[in-house]
Design a protein that fits this description.
alpha/beta, eight-stranded parallel sheet, four-stranded antiparallel sheet, 11 helices, 14 strands, binds flavin mononucleotide
């Protein structure tokens, strides 16, 4: 467990200076649409200390058919299906706009093979506007049929392929469906990853109450929000105990209290995802609450580990 109070202010994340520890979860805040809606005031009061793009793929994608969202008692199930303009469309249209944000930019990439991942990392990593690359490994590798991030060996191979192609820090976004996320994190670290982030969404499904058929156009989707926070906290703790590289924790963070818990569990930085749909300024609020809480001394409590 690290001292949360020390990490609530400016920090360095894989050599990149950040003014604070609150990022966004990839795909949960559209900074380009927000700039259109809020104008330059978004830049003056940007809610995050670094911005993570939504995941891009080599080819453009339409995403899944609607409906794409289902509200759970404590969060969402999304079946968005990674709609994006593809690598060339992103570099031409989105990157120049994201480069105007007042914080370092991480670009999230997903490949359906190691070749695709290599192409994405090389092309994105050569751009000066990009401070970090996040590998979203929650997808099946068409070469092996395995979800890259579900397996330590697959993850290591993916990172080994990407590592020599870019000098940018590489963050591996872990999937919570892995049997042993800490083993996957250790494999990523061993292969040269500079940080890991977790958790991505958990697999879920909802049924249309009228038809009895699956509600989501994509049949299954990803569960996020406060309902997954306890799962995320446990995985962040297990991973942070196992690796020396920084851990970026996320999953249901909606307040400074939640963020502080992730930092106490070993995360170096945190990300706000689903909460930004309810409150687009959630990142800034979480950061302010976190600073206030981190300044308060925590009352000493017995260490449960000492009872074992
Ligand atoms: C609508 C939606 C879209 C998402 N898109 C992406 C994505 O493109 N890439 C990715 O790595 N994670 C994506 N995520 C996962 C989030 O970044 C985050 O890991 C997850 O939602 C857990 O955090 P939260 O509970 O705070 O939302 C998405 C989540 C949601 C709800």
């Amino acid at each position: 467990m690290t001292s949360a109070a020390q990490t609530a202010s400016a920090l360095e994340l894989c050599g990149v200076a950040l003014r604070g520890p609150v990022l966004n979860g990839s795909g949960t805040f559209d900074a380009i649409a927000a700039r259109r809606a809020f104008g330059d005031s978004l830049l003056e009061r940007f809610p995050f200390d670094a911005f993570v793009s939504k995941t891009i793929t080599v080819e453009p994608r339409q995403g899944n058919p609607p409906p794409r969202l289902w509200e759970t008692p404590a969060g969402l199930i999304n079946s968005i299906g990674l709609p994006n303009k593809g690598l060339e469309g992103f570099l031409e249209h989105d990157l120049p706009e994201l480069a105007e944000l007042p914080v370092p930019l991480a670009v999230s990439v997903m490949g359906f093979s190691r070749d695709e991942l290599a192409l994405l990392a090389a092309r994105v990593g050569e751009r000066d506007e990009v401070a970090m690359i996040e590998l979203n490994v929650s997808c099946p590798n068409v070469e092996s049929g395995l979800v890259m991030g579900a397996d330590p060996v697959e993850t290591a191979r993916a990172v080994e392929r990407v590592r020599p192609l870019t000098e940018r820090p590489v963050i591996v976004k872990l999937t919570p469906g892995a049997l042993d996320p800490a083993a996957v994190a250790a494999a990523a670290e061993g292969a040269g990853a500079d940080a890991v982030s977790l958790i991505n969404t958990l697999k879920g499904m909802a049924v249309n109450p009228r038809s009895g058929r699956p509600w989501l156009g994509g049949v299954t989707g990803g569960v996020s929000g406060p309902g997954i926070r306890a799962v995320a906290l446990e995985q962040v703790h297990a991973v942070a105990e196992r690796v020396a590289i920084p851990v970026i924790g996320m999953g249901g963070i909606a307040s400074g209290r939640d963020a502080l818990d992730f930092l106490a569990a070993g995360a170096r930085a945190v990300a706000v995802g689903t909460e930004s749909f309810r409150d687009p300024a959630a990142g800034r609020r979480v950061a302010a609450e976190l600073r206030a809480l981190a300044a308060e001394p925590r009352s000493p409590a017995p260490d449960p580990a000492s009872k074992r």
